[in-house]
Amino acid sequence: MNIWFKLSPDQTTDFQVPWSIASAPESSFYSTMPLKNLYHSGPWLLLSLQSFVERPSIVTFQPCTVKLSYINEFDSFNPLHTVQGGQLNLNGAEISGLVELLVNYADQMPNGHVRPQYTFEEIKPDQWDNFHLYEDPATSARQRVFLQVHDLAADLRQEPLVSLIVIKTAPFNEASSQRLGCTNSVTYSVAFRQFSIAHLSDPQFSPLNQAVSRIDLDKYGLVELAMLLQKIMGDKPHFPLSDKEIRPFASPNAFPLNNSRASRLV
Fold first, then answer.
1. Strand, coil or helix: what is 34?
2. Is 182 helix (H, G, I), strand (E, B) or coil?
3. Distance (Å, rounded) from C-alpha 101 to C-alpha 111?
4. Would residue 234 be called left, alpha or beta, if left means φ above 0 and alpha means ψ between -120 and 50 degrees?
5. Is the pTM of this model over 0.90?
6. Vertex 95, ends 220 and 177: CA angle to 5°?
7. CB 62, CB 39: distance < 8 Å
8. Helices 92-107, 219-233: crossing angle, 10 deg rounding
9. How much of the chain is in helix, strand and coil states, percent to nearest 5?
């Protein structure tokens, strides 16, 4: 059984999500535990999936970590519009459940156009500084960075955006262990970051500290994201979609680095 469950609109507003969004038919929210669980002190994980009204084949995915301090200290706190809590620390069960959730959600989305383009490309360490990302030699975490290079929502925006996924694999985190009472030895830190490309001209800009946690994907982008996460875990992928639907993303080189395309963004 998947440890992620769908929240009701009332449960979603406990996380300070406005009712107009929590109750919207195009919105779906998930967590591993209700915020008002009196036997749990947090942090709480919150996943938001909102389809575009003007283009239902695209969904905005926003993962958040919510702490009581965020709610108590910020009167206007909204996890969907803040840089606070934009990083998820997940254990193996949580990230496996996330993979399953993404694929099941994608299976309910409109097909759109089957496309040969990959959604993500991996950015190698020698290019990280182009995106104001750096490796911390003091940590034992193994970091990988992925850039969204195919964005079907780009024409709906007034300015070009950059969307990054930063994944770190590190020794198991005690807080994550306490959420499920499990004994896994590995934790995965996953950060989604979206920001204006203009911010890259500011040497002080830090995506991990100043950008919002969100990414816009179509059905096939969600499947590719699920495959990416499962590949990070080193598990053999298994998805409840037809071979025809996932074939464009089934290559063992599913996340190639195209230096020319990545370089053109900076």
1. coil
2. coil
3. 17
4. left
5. no
6. 170
7. no
8. 160
9. 30, 25, 45
Backbone angles phi, psi at 242, to 5 degrees: -70, 155
Could you give the CA distance from residue 265 to residue 130 in angstroms, rounded to a whole number?
9
Q: CA-based angle 116:119:124, to the nearest 5?
A: 120
What are 152's two structure tokens?
């079907």
Of 24, 33, 38, 25, the C-alpha closest to 6 is 33
CB neighbours of residue 30 within 10 Å: 21
Helix (H) or strand (E) segment spanning residue 261? helix 259-264
Tell me the backbone φ, ψ of residue 10, rounded to 5 degrees. -65, -45
Is cis: bond before 63, omega within 30 of 0?
no
Element (H, E) at 168: strand 161-171
In our burial notation (b when 16+ CB lie closer than 10 A, e otherwise), range 77-116 reads: bebbebbbbbbbbbbbbbbbbbbbbbbbbbeebeeeeeee
- Separation between Cα atoms, residue 84 and residue 73, nearest integer Å: 11
Give pLDDT < 70 ranges for the chain: 1, 37-41, 72-75, 83-85, 112-116, 136-141, 170-185, 235-266
Q: What is the pLDDT of residue 1?
A: 58
89 secondary structure, DSSP code: E
Residue 246 CA, distance from chain mean position: 20
Rounded Cα–Cα distance for residues 39 and 4 (Å): 18
What pLDDT, in 10s, does the model give residues 101-144? 999 999 888 876 666 678 999 999 889 999 999 876 665 568 88
